[in-house]
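From the methods appendix. Each design record in this collection lists the tokenized structure first, followed by the designed amino acid sequence. Records were kept in a plain field format so they could be parsed without special tools. The example shown here is representative of the layout used throughout.

RECORD:
FOLD TOKENS (143 positions):
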């Protein structure tokens, strides 16, 4: 039995809807997969911006997994259509315009932090997967 195409503008003969999200995606886990899947349930094309090691240093973060590996893990996820490097805070508005994103999507822990982008597209905060985070995994590993 053939699979039905996923819902969305693309399958209605319209231009594909585009969503963009940002993150470090260190210690790639089920929460990341769930976020990407939830986004793809609502939009046709998903752009994922992965923070570079240099940008993480500016944010005061240090990844366990190097950028080159993290972006390849994100690219390997079937829900991701395009993975790009995130090199700075100011990049978000430019990327929304460059990729024609109708939605900027983040986890709900970022609620209210990117409201200035509402002039460019819809800003959506989706619920995080409970009980899993890269920070929590690192703490568990360290004991």
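DESIGN:
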């Amino acid at each position: 039995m053939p699979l039905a195409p996923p819902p969305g503008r693309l399958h209605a003969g319209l231009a594909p809807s585009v969503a963009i999200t940002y993150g470090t995606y260190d210690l790639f886990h089920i929460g990341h997969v769930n976020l990407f899947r939830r986004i793809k349930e609502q939009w046709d094309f998903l752009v994922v911006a992965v923070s570079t090691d240099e940008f993480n240093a500016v944010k005061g973060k240090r990844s366990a997994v190097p950028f080159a590996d993290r972006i390849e893990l994100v690219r390997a996820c079937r829900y991701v259509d395009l993975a790009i490097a995130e090199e700075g805070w100011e990049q978000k508005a430019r990327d929304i315009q460059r990729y024609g994103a109708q939605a900027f999507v983040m986890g709900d822990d970022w609620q209210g932090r990117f409201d200035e982008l509402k002039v460019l597209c819809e800003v959506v905060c989706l619920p995080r997967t409970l009980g899993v985070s890269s920070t929590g995994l690192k703490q568990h590993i360290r004991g």
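APPENDIX NOTE: The first strand starts at residue 18 and ends at 23.
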